[in-house]
Amino acid sequence: MSGKQLVDRMQSRVEQAKGMRDEEKLYRYKGVLYPCIMCPEENLKALDSISARADDIMLVAYPKCGFNWMVGVLRQIIAQASGVKEESRMPPLIEFFGPEALTNVGNAPSPRFLGTHMHPDNIPATFYQNKSKMLVIFRNPKDTVVSYYHFCNNNPVLPSVKSWDSFFQDFMSGDVPWGSYFTHALAWEKKMDDPNVMIVTYEDLKQNLSEGVRQISTFFGFSLTEAQVEQISQGSTFSAMKERSANSHGNMGNVIFRKGEVGDWKNHFSPEQSQQMDETFKNRLEGTRIGALLKYQLHCQ
Ligand SMILES: Nc1ncnc2c1ncn2[C@@H]1O[C@H](COP(=O)(O)OS(=O)(=O)O)[C@@H](OP(=O)(O)O)[C@H]1O
């Protein structure tokens, strides 16, 4: 499917959603909420048929942790390393594909660039069995929930949010699409020694994108010159990607590329909400390696 066809398909789904009631927009599959339009049950069931390859380039992120940012970075790395310039396309989320598109994925040449928001234990086992390399991007939970809140408010395929306070509570209890942030983080904790998994954070990349690009390309076995690393980093800043977003993401460009900052939570959280998040982080993630990677004290306190 061409980039234009994908953007058109996304936009027709957005139009379809505008005719739906909020309570029709989410459903549960194996206990986790998913958006009906983007990932109907047939899409999730079809994932059982996917066959992973060792040279697949897999990108994984809990929603709003920087998935689209890394899509931009990886596309440029692949283009620079292979010399093939690819037109910008919509995010390659396997749960959005459906049976027909998955058949095309099966016939696509290597290396395939695929992605998902799924919980690590729900990613098809074939990716682990066949040792596909996975890049995981995580973000501090306070900025993640703020980004998620704005996204739900501006994305017709998701139910609009009643209030910041109610969305915050839903996020804390994991009652949001793709499930609990904390459950995802704890599951990645168990995979931190897997040589085929690389976990990066939104905040570290904001601080030093060039170093991130260097490490990510090395992880996937690409060797780039310093000039290429710099070119990719400059082409992947928030402002550069936002500028291209009407072309790459159609009407959703301005929704996905919203603010792109660390610390926007300070404009949304009440002192009580901040304390509740601090306590939850302490109870669930303090003392874990993924918790340390997130630098909670620096970014959230
Ligand atoms: N290049 C770049 N630099 C910094 N930040 C960036 C960049 N690209 C996207 N973003 C920010 O990432 C947030 C969207 O996350 P996702 O792409 O994971 O969203 S989605 O779940 O796939 O819809 C969303 O965060 P917020 O702005 O805080 O809402 C985007 O602005």
Automatic annotation (TrEMBL):
Top-level lineage group: Eukaryota
Annotated organism of origin: Periophthalmus magnuspinnatus
Segments forming domain Sulfotransferase: 55-288
A UniProt-annotated Pfam family: Sulfotransfer_1
Keyword Transferase: yes
EC number: 2.8.2.-
Database matches in InterPro entries: P-loop_NTPase, Sulfotransferase_dom
Protein name in UniProt: Sulfotransferase
Broad enzyme group: transferase
Protein family according to the UniProt entry: Belongs to the sulfotransferase 1 family.
Highest classification ranks of the organism: Eukaryota, Metazoa, Chordata, Craniata, Vertebrata
A single GO molecular function term of this UniProt record: sulfotransferase activity
UniProt keyword annotations, A-Z: Transferase
Family annotation (Gene3D superfamilies): P-loop containing nucleotide triphosphate hydrolases
